[in-house]
Amino acid sequence: MYQGRVFFEGAEKRVELRIDPTLPSLRERGVEFWSDVVGACGVEILSCLSNGRCDAYLLSESSLFVFDHQVVLITCGRTKLTAAVIELLDRLPEEAVEMLIYQRKNG
């Protein structure tokens, strides 16, 4: 029951990036690389689970999924996801990026 409490949940923000599949796997970049990328938007990696296809990182504000040639980063609250995107793009060859989608929910 609500009982007059006010909760704040910032709008979810999501970025999906795909790189040229002829390039080395993004998974090979390691946890330090991804820690720097998500650190740029003010979050940190809390834990990681991996399988044969994906490294899934639990972040202090949402999640990061790293596949061989695709990354999905989802954040919420007051994070500056664009800062992480810029950090990631600065670390990849310009011609590597095949697709970049940025989404932000209203509200």
Any overview of this molecule?
- There is one protein chain.
- The protein is built from two helices and six strands; from the N terminus they run E-H-E-E-E-E-H-E.
- It has 107 residues and is an alpha+beta fold.
- Strand 4 (62-66) and strand 5 (70-75) form a beta hairpin.
- Helix 1 packs across helix 2 (81-91).
- The radius of gyration is 15 Å and the shape is globular.
- The two termini are 22 Å apart.
- The model has no long low-confidence stretch (mean pLDDT 89).
Number of strands: 6
Task: Flag low-confidence runs.
Answer: none
Spatial order of the strands in the main sheet? 2-3-4-5-1-6
> Structural class per helix/strand content?
alpha+beta
What is the alpha-carbon Rg in Å?
15 Å
Strand content bin: 25-35%
| Biggest beta sheet attributes | 6 strands, antiparallel
Q: N- to C-terminal separation?
A: 22 Å
Number of helices: 2
Secondary-structure map with pairings?
Elements: E1 13-19, H1 30-39, E2 45-50, E3 55-59, E4 62-66, E5 70-75, H2 81-91, E6 97-104
Antiparallel strand pairs: 1-5, 1-6, 2-3, 3-4, 4-5
Helix pairs in contact: 1-2
